Amino acid sequence: MKNIEKSKLKALSDIASIDISLEFNDVLQSILKFTCEATGAQSGTIMLVDESDNNIRMVASYGLPQNYIERVYDAAKKAGVPLASSPSGTVLETGKYYLVPNVFEEPKDKPWYDLTKELGFSSQLFTPMKKGLKVIGLLNVYWAELRRFTDEEIKFVTIAASQASSVVQNAKLCGRLENNVQELKQYKENLEEIIKEAHKKLYDSERYLRTIIESSMDGILVVDENGRFEFGNDSAFNILGWPEQELIGQFFMKVFPDDMEKFMLERWQEVQNGIEKPYETKIITKNREIKYLFVSHSPAILNKRKKYVVVVKDITEKLRLEQELKESYEELKEADRIKTEFISNITHELLTPLTSIKGFVELLNDEAIGRINEEQKKSLGIIHRNSERLIHLIKELVDISHLEKNKLGLQFGLVSINDILSKCVLDMQPLAKEKQISLFQDAPPLPRIWGDEERLTQVIINLLANAIKFTPQNGKITVIPHDLTEQVKISIRDTGIGIPPDQLSRIFDRFYQIDGSTKRKYGGTGIGLSICKNIIEKHYGSIWAESDGNGSTFHILLPKLKTKEGVSNVKPES
Ligand code: ADP
Question: What is the residue with the minimal CA distance to atom 19 of ligand 1?
Fold first, then answer.
């Protein structure tokens, strides 16, 4: 470049310093302008080959009308020659510059003489713009005067053309880059969308877990590996009785009273040794209130560090209630003991005079002391019946107090169920007759069994008394013994008021009566069946009731005797 004169060097440096951020056409326009000015040219043009149709398009012009290229094409068309035959066409074909010192002596320019004359230029320099070996356009410069081109001038314009070519290539590159940038932008936007979505999911699941943690009634805490509080839900701080900001970062011993220090440090040691054993402990709140907690914990890796998740339950109220319950249970037990003691004393005190009253009434009634009239006999009968009722009631009370003390002693021996049943039916006949109730006993012979005769009699009498009590006049009561393989069964069926299905088992509970009105109408204490059940169970038997629309049936099952030969060794009675 040493033979390029200074003004042209300046022009080249101007070209080099063109602001490339300008639009691509503006840059080419500037290159063309600097080239024309530096070479004293009257006009010039930069044209690019359109790869889609191989035509050339003007992308920059200097000192030429806007429709120059159209007119070039028109002139060629008019002359009937292809553009390829022009100097431009030659440069496009050869890739070499083409000099026209005098347009009007240049045969290739002939179709454009008129146009040239009109535009007023006489000499031309056509230079190729190349990409490698390929010609992508032309930078043409036109002078008004005839010209002898210097090498330096040619070189200068050639350099300008190659600069213009670089601009075009850069622009294409830029276009591609632009596309890439667009694609990247799109990709980035997609990525951002995905990240946003992932964030949202994370946020939702975090909020989900947080809601669970926050709505937990139990306190949930995270303690770091040094035993410092790191996190807690609202319940935790409520239970511990300290504000969050005064606990976070503090060693856990802060919430424990001094006397728990040894215990808690031992627990902490266990926790660190991986022992996940829950325990109960005592804490002290900020207001110096003592509370009791149930604590469980488990190790967890959070944020890549070892932590401990601790769950605390406030059991202060529960322990208080338990204590209260224990105390009331003790009180109740004591009251019950006193009551049983009282019943056992009072029944004894009542039974002695009552038995004597009953005895004297019988003496009076038998006229052992003196004659009595019918009216007096009737009254004595009433006294006698009522004293018997009272004695029966007191005996039940004695039984109950014995039952409670587990002292209902039974005298076992061989007993005849048939005898017991016949005796009971006989004894109860007068009572049944009073209500015109027929009382029958089916009599298949039963083997004798091992039992307490007096107590079994008590049971049958009780069941018959109930049957009579709850059966209206003209009813029917049947006693049916059954001889089963290993047991004997006694069923007492009545045609009375029946028992609702949901009460069938409850009637055997102590003091239970079906309802208040029953109690009022029929009297009684609700003790009898519970005593019966106890006596039968002491015989390893069972008792239950059934009821349908036609009354109730009470069943008793008692085991037969067992010997080496099998059951039922005792001969049936004839
Ligand atoms: P009490 O007869 O003194 O009330 P029981 O323990 O003998 O006490 O009976 C408890 C309850 O069972 C009775 O109050 C009655 O409601 C019901 N009950 C017992 N036997 C019969 C029966 N044969 N028919 C209908 N209800 C009966």
Answer: 466
Residue 570 has pLDDT above 70, yes or no: no
The predicted structure's pLDDT at residue 21: 53
Residue 414 Cα distances to 364, 444, 461, 569, angstroms: 39, 19, 19, 12
Which of 399, 462, 466, 511 to mutate for ligand 1's pocket (most ligand atoms within 8 Å of CB)? Answer: 466
In the CATH hierarchy, which fold is given to the domain comprising 216-314? Beta-Lactamase (3.30.450)
Determine the atom of ligand 1 nearest the C-alpha atom of 530: 6
| C-alpha to C-alpha distance for 360 and 287, rounded to whole angstroms | 76
Residue 514's CB is within 10 A of a number of other CB atoms, namely: 17
Supply the pTM of this predicted model. Answer: 0.49
Residues 446 and 487: their CA atoms lie apart, in Å, by: 10
User: Which is the closest atom of ligand 1 to the Cα of 524?
Assistant: 3
216-314 shares its CATH topology with 413-567: no
What is the CA(457)–ligand 1 centre distance, in A? 18
Residue 446 pLDDT more than 90?
no
What are the boundaries of each domain within the chain? 6-175, 216-314, 322-404, 413-567
In this prediction, residue 11 has a pLDDT band, given cuts at 50, 70 and 90, of: confident
Residues 6+ apart with CB under 8 A from 158: 97, 127
Return the CATH superfamily for domain 413-567.
Histidine kinase-like ATPase, C-terminal domain (3.30.565.10)
pLDDT for position 564: 57
Look at residues 140, 138, 158 and name the one whose alpha carbon lies nearest to residue 150.
158
Ligand 1 centroid–CA 137 distance in Å is: 123
- Taking the CA of residue 519 as reference, the ligand 1 atom at the shortest distance is 14
Q: Ligand 1, closest atom to CA 497?
A: 25
Residues 281-302 have pLDDT tens digits of 999 999 999 999 999 999 999 8
Asked if 131 and 169 touch (Cβ cutoff 8 Å), the reply is yes
Q: Does domain 6-175 have CATH number 2.40.160.20?
A: no
Q: What is the pLDDT of residue 511?
A: 82
Model confidence pLDDT, tens digit, residues 137-196: 999 999 999 988 989 889 999 999 998 898 888 877 777 777 888 888 889 899 999 999
Residue list, ligand 1 pocket, CB within 6 Å: 466-467, 470, 494, 496-497, 499, 507, 512-514, 518, 524-530, 552
